[in-house]
C-alpha cells in the first residue's frame, strides 16, 4: 500500500469515526425531542422514522469502520451522547421548544449533509467504492430529512402559533 493510499485510508477512517459519533449524538437528541412532542403528531412520526434511519446509519458506519480495520469510538461517542442529552434538556425548558427544536434539527441535518458529502469524496479517493456507496445512501437520507423539515416548518410554526393563541392549549410540545 502506498503512503498516499495509506494516508487517504486513515483520513477516511477518522472521518467515519467522527460520523459515527455524530450519529450517536443525533440519535440522543432526536429521541429526547420525540419523547416530549405531544401536539405535533406528524413531526413526532417523522422524527421517530429518522431515529430508525439514524440507527441503521450508525450500524452501516460501524461496518465501514471495521472493514478498514478500525474500531468504533466509545469515549467520544459517550461524550457526544452526554452533550446531546444536556442540549436536549436545555431545549425542554424553552417555552417554544418545538420551534427551537425544528431549527436546531434543520441546522444539524445540514452539518450531516456536509459530513457525508466529504465522506463520499474521501471514500472515492481512497478507492473504497463500497464505503462511498454507503455514505451516498446516508447522504440521501439526511437530505430527505432536511427537505422534510424545510417543507413542514411553516405549517408547524403556524400550528404552534395557533395553539399558543388558544386558551388552555399546550403549544410548547
Question: How would you describe this protein?
Answer:
This protein has one domain (3-165): Ferritin, core subunit, four-helix bundle (Ferritin, Up-down Bundle), CATH 1.20.1260.10. It has 173 residues and is mainly α. The protein has five helices and no strands. The mean pLDDT is 87.
Could you say how many structural domains there are in total?
1
Q: Which CATH architecture?
A: Up-down Bundle
The percent of residues in helical segments reads over 70%
The stretches of 5 or more residues where confidence is low (pLDDT under 50) are none
Mean pLDDT level: 87
Write the element-wise H/E pattern from the N-terminal end onward.
HHHHH
Quick structural gist:
The protein is an all-alpha fold and 173 residues long. The protein is built from five helices and no strands. α1 (3-36) packs antiparallel against α2, α1 (3-36) packs antiparallel against α4 (97-125) and α2 runs antiparallel to α5 (129-165).
Descriptive keywords:
elongated, mainly alpha, Ferritin, 5 helices, 173 residues
Topology (elements, then pairings):
Blueprint: H1 3-36, H2 41-67, H3 75-92, H4 97-125, H5 129-165
Helix pairs in contact: 1-2, 1-3, 1-4, 2-5, 4-5
Amino acid at each position: 500500500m502506498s503512503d498516499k493510499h495509506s494516508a487517504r485510508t486513515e483520513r477516511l477512517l477518522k472521518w467515519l469515526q467522527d460520523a459515527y459519533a455524530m450519529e450517536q449524538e443525533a440519535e440522543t437528541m432526536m429521541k429526547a425531542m420525540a419523547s416530549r412532542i405531544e401536539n405535533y403528531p406528524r413531526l413526532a412520526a417523522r422524527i421517530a422514522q429518522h431515529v430508525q434511519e439514524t440507527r441503521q446509519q450508525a450500524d452501516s458506519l460501524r461496518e465501514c469502520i471495521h472493514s478498514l480495520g478500525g474500531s468504533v469510538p466509545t469515549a467520544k461517542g459517550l461524550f457526544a451522547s452526554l452533550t446531546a442529552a444536556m442540549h436536549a434538556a436545555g431545549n425542554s425548558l424553552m417555552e417554544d421548544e418545538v420551534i427551537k427544536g425544528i431549527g436546531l434539527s434543520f441546522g444539524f441535518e445540514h452539518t450531516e449533509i456536509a459530513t457525508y458529502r466529504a465522506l463520499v469524496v474521501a471514500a472515492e479517493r481512497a478507492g473504497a467504492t463500497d464505503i462511498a456507496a454507503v455514505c451516498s445512501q446516508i447522504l440521501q437520507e439526511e437530505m430527505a430529512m432536511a427537505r422534510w423539515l424545510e417543507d413542514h416548518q411553516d405549517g408547524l410554526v403556524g400550528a404552534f402559533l395557533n395553539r399558543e393563541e388558544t386558551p388552555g392549549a399546550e403549544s410548547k410540545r
